[in-house]
């Protein structure tokens, strides 16, 4: 059954498209997609979890049916947190929620999870570190940090003027990134998802890596690292116990786009984690 669609409005007036998979009497799970995806990424996962939890997905600003602000500053992590809080108030105003996130969805969710009052009961993070944690990780200047920098080549590329946008519009970049994951990564995406989402990198990466904050959380975190991820190394994703002491680490076989390529495994990992920390999903 397809989800119902509604909208909520963030603090700066940006409209966020929200998708509700029903089961409102169950605990709420909010799924946050990454770049260059939109909320449709979560459809196969949500279909498998909808009997256990109240699944909510949303299009991050700049993607899908949400508004597409033109200013790069509108994509700062503080604005993304305001979007999440608007979705949270819309979907579960009175109860804490569980969060499942991937890629840039995980990066921004670390911002929410490490808030002073997160209103989050548990967090499953796939292929997405905190930028603040990454700033400290890269300061070690050791082999693991150098390996991650090599994996992060595309971030430097996204900071170039006009060329990345041209490459997406002409289709050159699609071929490169699809080859890295050996999949058709254009499914259910628009050119806006690709072009707008680069502002996430330009608004946040350099400031956070240069001046990282000591962001900590007691929320139960499951960090899931696919062993063949071409973009994010396992060390960067999982060497975070100093910041998240209530941490479980799972390394799985697979590539970066787990939610699309192995939704059954993602659903199983969410059930297991939430069962352990909240007693549901059995």
Automatic annotation (TrEMBL):
InterPro entries: AB_hydrolase_1, AB_hydrolase_fold
SUPFAM superfamilies attached to this UniProt entry: alpha/beta-Hydrolases (SSF53474)
Matches recorded under Pfam families: Abhydrolase_1
Chain segments annotated as transmembrane: none
Occurrences of domain AB hydrolase-1 (ranges): 27-155
A GO MF label: catalytic activity
Protein name: Pimeloyl-ACP methyl ester carboxylesterase
